[in-house]
Every structure is written in structure tokens, then in C-alpha cells.
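G., before I forget:
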Amino acid sequence: MLRFAALISVCLMLAAPSSAQQADAPIQQLIQSQSDLILKSSRRSIGPAIDALANSGLPEAQVVLDKWQTREMWVNEETGLFVYAEEIDRDTLRIFDFADGSEIGVVSDDGFDQIKPNSGIRGLIGTALVQFQLSDPNPETRQRALDAIERGAEESHLAALRASLASETDETILARKKRLERLLTIAYGATNQERIEAIQSFGGDLGVDVRAALNPLLAVRVEAAETLPEADDIGRVLEPGSEVLSRDEAYELLVRADLAKPRISLEDQRNALIENISDGQVAGIQVAMLDSQSARDMAYAALADQGTVTPVATEAEVDERLANHVFYERYIGAPPEVVVAAQLALKSIENKVALNQTFDLSLDALSLASIYFLAAIGLAITFGVMGVINMAHGEFIMMGAYTGYVVQLFIPDYTLSILVAIPLAFAVTFGAGVAMERLVIRWLYHRPLETLLATFGISIALQQIAKNIFGTQARPLTAPGWLDGSLVINDIVSISYIRIAIFVLALLFLALFLFVMNRTRLGLEVRAVTQNPRMAASMGINPDKINMLTFGFGSGIAGIAGVAIGLYAKVTSEMGSDYIVQSFMTVVVGGVGNIWGTLLGATMVGFLQKGIEWFNPSNTLAAQTYMILFIILFIQFRPKGIIALKGRAAEA
Amino acid sequence: MSMKFLSTTAAAALLVTTLPAFAQDVSCPIKVGVLHSLSGTMAISETTLKDTMEMLVDIQNDKGGLLGCELEAVVVDPASDWPLFAEKARELLTVQNVDVIFGSWTSVSRKSALPVLEELNGLMFYPVQYEGEESSKNVFYTGAAPNQQAIPATDYFLEELGVEKFALLGTDYVYPRTTNNILEAYLKDKGIAEEDIFVNYTPFGHSDWSKIVSDVVALGADGKKVGVISTINGDANIGFYKELAAAGISADDIPVVAFSVGEEELSGLDTTNLVGHLAAWNYFQSADTEANEEWVASWKERMGEERVTNDPMEAHYIGFNMWVNAVEDAGTTDVDAVRTAMYGQEFPNLTGGTAVMLPNHHLAKPVLIGEIQEDGQFDIISQTDEVPGDAWTDYLPESAVLKSDWKELGCGMYNTETETCVQIKSNY
Amino acid sequence: MTEVALPRRQPFALRFPSVMVFLAILALFTVGVTILSEGFGIGVISTSFVKTLGKTLCLCLVALAMDLVWGYCGILSLGHMAFFGLGGYAIGMWLMYARTEIIVLESLAAAPLPPTPQEVSDGIATQIFGVVGASEFPPIWAFAHSLPLQLAAVVIVPGLLALVFGWLAFRSRVTGVYLSILTQAMTLALSLHLFQNDSGLRGNNGLSGLQNLPGLSEVPQSIVSMWFFWGSALALALGYILCAWVVSGKFGSVIRAIRDDEARVRFLGYPVETFKLVIFTLTAVIAGIAGALYYPQAGIINPAEIAPIASIYLAVWVAIGGRGRLYGAVIGAAFVSLLSTWFTGGQAPDINLGFYTISWVDWWTVLLGLSFVGVTLFAPKGIGGLVDILIDQKSPNRHGADLGPDQGALREQEADK
């Protein structure tokens, strides 16, 4: 019934407004004339339509471009008239006339098609809108204009930008405008002098935009000649067979410039031979003999002698041609003086870039190290201090992460939910750890290898249970808004806040660990029990209780680590197994039984992995392989890890 | 009298010969094998497809079954263990005697089952977008070949977004490797220089993306517009998109188009920071057609309101319905008869238009490009006409000369240059 | 010359009746399967089940190796499935190469020009590596054309890796859990390496179609599967005899002594490292051979097979079967892997609890995991312990020392509790 009423009202509304639209207003006429292009909505062909609107001089054109860009333009399927609209809900629109901005009415969206410009077209519209927006009273609009210039600068923007400088009142926008003006001058400046000055003004600036402006100036074309021409715009001389110019490329260049005979590919050669088979022979050679490359070369040469195929260059000729020519780069991006200035500027920038990249890489490595440390610290307690191999450690991490996910289901506020999730994750995994210690591990203290097997059994059972409960799909664990984004030091060095938070958390845990072990009664008792359980027992310490608490503590920390790791990566039932081997490595490399060793181990593993990634940026998998290999070798030579315990403690 | 007697016997004989013939070809119930992992790493994606198949079988049974028989789904679990795909396929075909198999997700699992399918002349429908370079007599590929997903998306980057520099990021396995090889060749063909193509491979489930993301940002240093083509698979996407969002990279600066990210993957993360990034598929849940609305509604009714539909599900939807129609046309579930009846089968897509089964065992389907929205759905911004799936890509020299035509040539790997069939079986 | 001084030794078979019993059961089993098979018998057992049984025999063989290295020598290696996989890769390379070569030669024979060696090799490479986007042979395929060389590689590659790794590890006295973690790291590194496409072994895709023997495409799989079944049974029998012989003599006493107290053996003057190295390498070779028989039956090998978890499962089989006795390993491997097949195959009936239905596909892994815990806690002797009860064998009095390997076992006091 309700739906029926709604339908009627929509129909009524639909009937009323269409007459109210001014179909013959000049702006509507203009849009209509471009309607085909607009509806086709392709970046390749849209140019004329945007130009027509932008250059029309009509005051409404800006509104049209604006609404078009923000996807608020709709077309009436029946009449083909364009309107802009607000979406009231999924099915209803409030539509407006472009001619005077007046509301036409509220209609169903059935008769209307939304114009959806893709981001390429949106960029073009933005570029066209720049001229209207640079002096707009609204600072946000001016910022948008500057964004558009950054994304797609045109020569005309330079004049417009300069004109708008005088009237700019906002300090930050003015600074941005000035910087953009200099960047545009580099590209489009009228005189070389002007451009060189603009280039020099950026000495040592690290912005990607600066390099983006300078690099095109250094564009080169490789050319070949018998002698090196004397000219200002000649860059490097290239050696054929070097890394920049392979022999094949160099020869290809000569062939294209008609300076040498072409070579033939093996496939073309074969086809040529096949075409010339007659009576089971090619140029007098039996087809059956042509089963080696040298025989085919001979046959082809014989055909060439007969004149049936075009002769091709032999290896000797290729060598000779290459030796007779010089290959060099010619600058085509800018006049020579500008190139020199750009080269100088880039050189000074590049040194700084290299330095900053190293710094950025170190930050990444540090961040990775803190993640490894966080994953391993619980293990440093259960394995390092107690000597219990807990293969289910990874699953405690997973349990922590799922706790975070469940908490977020109930508490929608992300900040609050994380604050709740952290202690809760600790509690849950502490409980699980204590239960596991009581039920399984305490029977196996004398049998470390069997602990490994039993905890492995628990690990696969827990993984499968998590799958049965939460499904196999990755679950979201969303960081609070204030952890979004990253700390940007400059265009090269930046690190996301979430990684900083993990780093801080890792430091906090380190402090907590040190405090508990060295400053509390529990820590004292733990150390006593680890060193000599019988002696400790005779001093009135209950080793059972201490073992239980220590194990719970280690597991609890793993749970918190799980929340942190879930925030930065993903929550799946298999996330634990991603970290387990690495965590053991971290502890073993660092030296069992020493938290500083674990810290050093994590740092070493993190830096090593990033270092290898830097050497071989296109294959991250190789980095992991080499890292493990390195660790295996490292343990061969320092079996007790970086920090080896000495004396009595080592035997405990 | 004798005439009457004769005609009666003739009729009886006819009856006798037709009825058993009918019963011979179709033994009730008709069994539909479902070979999707329900445990292990791939269960994430494949369980959904098992549910889809069960739903399709139920829907068909509600319609009255097939050839007068009930359909029965025989579900086995190859447990994401590739050798098990071969073993379970053999079991389905020889022990359970299924009439058709719907299954596999990863290429390696398909390659594992292939020899068994070819040996026992089984029939499998494979629903996932893949790297091409294969056309088996016993498999129908209802997912996209590279020219139905990767190439159109790259064209979109080149033409619509004006991208001049490409970062091809992928998980290190066969689909990204081959796709990126094809794309590299294609881009060079389009005049993109080798140094403007950056390729990187990461392991499955990779989570530490900061360096790779900053490498991609640094690509912009020579003033060319950068775009990312991502063949990153599964869970690893979550970390990648989180890092992308943290680095504040908007789709207007560096657009990312993904081939393995659909509604299902996006449900694992908060998409507010990813709005505007792209994905290319043959289907999006947001497709605005009646058939799709009905499909989504029945899926949600069966599985729960928060569940989403995705591209491989549509592939199974089309594949299953085509198979049903082919069986009806052939009047039997016999593999060879059904295969012949499959060629030229048409079935409406959920996104509008009609899918056609080609003689190379691939579908002609439209290619859709969608922008990620805040609610984890895709806004379809580009939809092509039907693109015929190409088993052997035209952009790699070795396979440019190959073509597949099971109907006319009876060969899945036919060398057009030498005009010979390279091999009847597939290279696994 | 010392012949006289030694007490007269009983024949091998009499000293170890369990070996004879085992061989008899194995022979009976092989004959039984042959009679029931599709290929040579009445067709009660399907080809796919014959393959499963054949593969199980290979798993028993590698479990035997694991028992030797862990149950007898006390080295809990979590890397033996890596050796198993390497054996599979070695034979797989030849199988792929030879099969593809036949196809390529056939197709090139139809070409108007006879093929050059380069064209043949390119053709094979394109067929094999086209799927991973390459068309050239990586150097490690240099011997793939030759069956004898690749068969040698089945033994040499795992053996050499074990030798180098073992030499490094034992030399620096890495023992106990550290060694376990180290071997696990080795497995992980190897599988990560093979996962890369650049490794030259087709990355994640691995080698496939291995069940099709080159040149024998006309022979049906029902026959081929029986050949491999017999091969596996023979290998298991020989492996069993070899292992029984190794653990029987003085050598066996020394390795058991190393398991029980390594330091003491060293002080007695035995080169402990050499003994461990020999056992480690020998078992790696056995694992390699088992792998070479296993993968042609499985049909495909890829790096996931080498993942650390596989080796842990191997240890679990041996633990469940009962380590320190050879038949225990065989029982464990056969029992657990067949049970796994049954449960994950969806044949096990679901249990309806009214409010919840336990579907075994989902819950089997949980049960398996918990049963490890149960076995380690309550039945350290594993299933093999049942035999002791059966023949009423008493444990030797060991004065409260460990009952099993390297501080790894139940102590007598605990057992008596």
C-alpha cells in the first residue's frame, strides 16, 4: 500500500516538472550541442566538449563543469535535457535547471541517467575549471584548482596563476601558488633566463614535483653517426653492448637510419627457406640436411646469392658497422643552457634523495623489526625464559586479533574499541595460556621435543576452530581515525602512524618486560624457578604457580601483539603461522633467555630483510629466502645467538 | 490380425528400444561434482563457490530437475592441496560417476586435475579469471581470459586515465607472472618504454608493503603519470590497500586497478580511503539489471544479509545454466554430446547482454570496470560490449600463432603458421 | 681372525622376527591389492584408491626414515619432507621433459623443414615454461633429458643437501629443539625459494602431469598405478630391511646411545658427529627415493608440498605410530594418512548433536590436533605400544632415566605413576 502511494506521488512529481525546464536557455543549447561527446564519456574524445563549455563565456558554464565533475549531472532519458540533481535516497532525485539554478522538482531516478565521468575526464574538467577557480572567494575551491594544476598543468595556467598571485590573501595558498608558479616557469617559462632562475631556486628541494618538472627537461634521443657531431645539445657517448645500449639496439638504430643492412630473425629465415623449397631442396641443399643452424645459414646465403631473397648482414658486417659509428644522446627536452642548469639542480637533489631514501629504508626496517619483536616477545618469555617450545604461539596472536575483531562488532567507536580490545585480548590469551600450561605443558617440562609436538597439535586445532567460528574470509580490524595516514617528513621519508604506534607498543612491552622481570616479586621468582626449580621450591616459592603465571604472561602479550598486527595487516585464521617461524628465528638468533638478545635479533632480521629487498626490489620473496639462509648460517657460527648466556644460567 | 500384431510388436519394440536408451544415457539422479576446497588456504574463496553450486542445483531441482531426473551435488574437499585435486577428480569420475564437475580456483589446481579429466574424458567448468595459454577439450573456461580483463583494463588506463608509467604488482605465481608478461608485451606494443614499466612480485599473504608503496610513489619523479596494475592475490591485498591509504595516495594521483579484488575481498577492510581505485571484472554485484537483483536477493536469503556476490559466482551461474541447456539440447549427459551442444550456447549475463560459448571453450562476455565505493561495492564506470575470450594471447610471439577451435579443427593448440595441431592434450 | 672370539650370531631374520612378520604382511597386502585391483584383478579397488595405497606406502617409507633419525638417533628433524620433495622434483623434471619432448618432436616432424636442435629445445622449453611466462631452460634443467642422471639426482641432491646442512649443524653442536627449528628454517627457505618463479622449477605451479609416463601414453592408468604400487611396496620392503640392519648391529647401539646420552658417547671416544651425519644423510636419501616414487602417483609436485607443516605431520605420524620401533613408524603413517583421506573425503558420516551438526570436513583437523596432544600426554609409545601389551613385553629397568630419545621422552618415574 505504502509502495503504491509512493509510486503515485512519484508519477505525479514526474509529470509536473518536465515542463518547467528551460529547454532553450543558451547553456542548455550549448550542452545539447556537445551532448554526444558528453554521453560517450571518453577522455580521448571529450576535449572539444570541455573546451566549448570553458570558452563559452557563459556564466553558468562553471556550474555545469563543476556539477559534471562531481557526478551530479543527470540526463533525462526521454527529452535528452541535462539537469543537475541531489540524490535524496536510492531512487529519488531533486533536480535543478542549469539555466538559473532553480529547483525543478523531486522525481524518481528511473527516467534519468547519471553522467559518470571517469577520473581521467574529471581531471580534464578540473584543468578547464582552473581559470574560474584560481581567484574564487572560497579557499577550498582555490586549493582544488591548485590540485588540478599539479595533476595536469597546461601552458595557459602559468599566466592565470601569475595573475592570481596579487589578490591571494591566504598565506598557505599563496605559498603553494608561488611554488607552483616556479614549477610552471621551469616547464613553460618564456625565456631561458627565466627558466634557469626558476630551476636554481629549487636547489636541493626533495619534492617529487620538482624532480617531475626537471626530469622531462633532460629527455634524450639516441642517435648514431660516423663521427661525433660538434653541438651543445650532445650528451653522453654510448658504447654498443653496454647496459644502456645493447648491441642489438644499437644495430637496430643503424638499420632504421638506413646506415646498415637489416638482420633477419630465425623465424623469418625459416619461413624464407620454406618458401623456396623446390623438389625437396633449398638452393641445392637437401631439406633433410637443414636440421642445424649453420646449414640453414648456408642455404639462406645461397638463396641470397641467387637473388631470390634479400641479403642480410652477417655477424662480421654487424661488428664492422657498429665499430664504424658513434652512438650518442641528444637532448631534446630543452635548450642546452636550461639542460645544464637542470642537470646541476638534479645532481644536488639526487644526493639528498639517496640519503633520504636510506633514511626511509631504515625507518621501514625499524618498523619491521618492531613488528617481529612484538610477535616474538611473548615467545621470548615462554621459550626464552621457560624453555617451553610453544608452536601455538602464533595462534595466541591470532586469538588476540580475533578478540579485537569481536570487540569491534560490539563497540562501533574505533578508539574505544581498541582501548577495550587490548586488555581483553590480554585476558583471553592469558586464560588460554594458563589453561594450556595446566592441561598440557606442565606434564611435559622434561620433554621439550614432545612439547613441540603437543603444542603443534593445539596449534592446528585452534586454527581450524577459528575457521569454523569466523569463517575463512579475512576479517576487518580497523584502526581509529587518528591512526590513519602517515607522518610525512618530506616527499621521500614518511611512515604511517599505525607503524609508529606499533613501534611505541613494542618499546612499551620491552619496558614492561624489564620492569616485571627485574623489579617485581614475580620476576624474582620467575628467575629463581628458571635457574633452579628445586632450590626455589625449598625457598617457599611454588614453582607450579610461577610457571603457570609466566606462561600466561607470555601468552597474554602475544594476544596484545595480535591486536596490533591485525590493525596493520589482516585478521585470518592463518595469520599466526606467518609469524611463528620468524618469531622462533628472532629469539634463537638473539640468544635464548635474554630480552636484549631478542631485541637485537628482531633488529637484525628487520634490517637484513629490508637491505636484501633494496638490493633486489622486484622480488620480495627472494629477500625472505636469503634472510632465512643467512640466519641458518649465522646460527652455525654463533649457535647460542648474538647474546649468549654464560655460566650457570646457560645450563638452566 | 497379423498386421495389428505386427504394428503392436513394432510399437513395443520401439518402446523397448527407446526407453532403455533413455535410461542408459541418463541415470537418475544426475550427479554434479563440486571440486572446491573447503579447508586450507583457498577455502576463503572456494567455499563461496561450493555454496553457489548447491544453490544452483537446488534452484534447478525446484524447476523440476533435468531430463526428468533430480540433480544431486556431490561435494568433495580437495583441501587446497593441489595433488588432491587430481585424486578427487579421479574419484568423482570413476567412483561417484558424476556427469559434470564444477571446480578449481587456482591455476595449479586446474593443471593438477587436467590430466585426469583428459584421461577419463570428464567435463569440468572452471569459473575463475586466469592467465590463458590453455584450452583443454575437457574444460570450459567461464572466467575471463587476459583479453577479457587485463587488456581492457590496461586500455582504460592508457586511454581514459592517461597513464604513462606502469607499476605491475603481483603475487608470485603463475597468473600474475603470465598476465604481467602479456601486459609488458602489450604496453611495449603501445609505445611504453621498458624503463617505464616497474614489475614487482611478493609472496602469498605478504603484509609489509611500505617499501613497495614508496617505490611506486617514487616512480612519479620523472613527471609521468603513474598507474598501478595489481594482480595481488587474496589476503595480501588487505595490507597493500591499508598501506596505500596510510600513504594518502588518492586514486586521482596514482590509480590502482586490481584483477583479483572483488566484493568478497573488500568485505575484509574499511574502504573509505580507497574510494576511486578500480577493479576490472566481468561482473559486479552493483550491476543494475533485474536478473542480478533476483540473484543477489536469493543469495542473501540463503546465506545471510551481509554476504556479497562476485565474479566467479556469476561464472558458475552462467556455466551451470549453459550446461543445463546443453544437456537438454543433447538429451543426454554424455560428455561428448554435451560438449558438442555447448558450442554456441547462449545465456543472459547478470550484467546485461548475452554470454556465448565459443568453440575455444571460452565465453564472450562484457568487461566491466568499477570504482571502489565507501560501502565496499563497485560503481560501474565502464562496460564494454561482449569480448570473445582468447585462449592464446596475441601479444606473446610464441602463442600469437596458436589458436583453439574444438568445433571445426578439433584441436586446442593449433599452429596457424604450420597449420598443424601441436597437441590434442594440454600441456600441464 | 677375531671370528673365533665372537659369540656365534644368530641369522638376521631370527634375531628380528618383527622384520619377517612385517615383510610377510607387506607381501600379503601387495598380493591382495593386486588381486582386487582394476588393472590386474577383479576390480574391487578403484584406480584412485590403488594410487592412494601406493602413495601411503611411500609415506610409510619416509616415516621409516624419520623414525631412524628421530626414534633411534634422537634428531627431531623437521626437514625430511624437504628431502622427500627434492626426490620428487628430480624425477619430475625428467618425466616432464621426456613427455614434452615426444609431443614437440611429433609436432615438429610435420613442419616442412627438419627441426634444428635449438628449435627442439626451444619448443620443449616453451611448452614447459610457457605457463609461467618463460621460454628458456634454466641451468638446473641441464640433465633433465637423461633418466639415469635424474635418477642419480634423486639420491644425490637430497643426500648432498643433508650432508652439507648436517655437517654445518652437527659441527657447531646444535642439538635438541634448536636443531629442530633450524631444520624447519631450512625447509621454509627451500619452499620459499621454490615458490619463486625464478627458481626455474615453475614456481608455485610446480611440475604437473607426472602420472603420464613418457612413451607409455597408451597404457591405462589402472596398469601404471599398479606398477608404482609394486615399486613402492618393494622400496618399502628394502627400506625396512636396510633400516632394521642399520639399527641392529654395533652401529645401531651407538646411535641409540647418542640418543640417550650424547655427551657420554662422545667421552667414550666415538665420533658422535660422524654417526649423526651418516644417519641424517642416509635417511635423507631414503626420503628422496620415497618422494621419487610418491609424486608420479600424486601427479603433481609443487613447493607447498615442502612447506614446514608437512615435515611436522611426518613427525606426528611417527609419534602416533610409536617411535623407536620401525613398524611403529609404518603403522603411524599408514593409519593417520588413510584416516585423513577418509575424513576429508566427505565419506565420514556427520554427527548431528541436535543444536549443531559436526561435519567432519570442518572438525577432522581439530580432532587430529587434539589426538596429537593425547598421544604425547597419555601414550608416548604410540599405537606400537599395543604390540608390547599383546606380546606382554616389559620395559627394561632403566633406573629412572629417560625412556626415549634425548631428554625427549617419558621418564620412568612418570611412566610408573
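Chain B touches chain C through 48 residues (CB under 8 Å). Residues 150-258 of chain B form a domain with the Rossmann fold fold (CATH 3.40.50.2300).

More on Monday.
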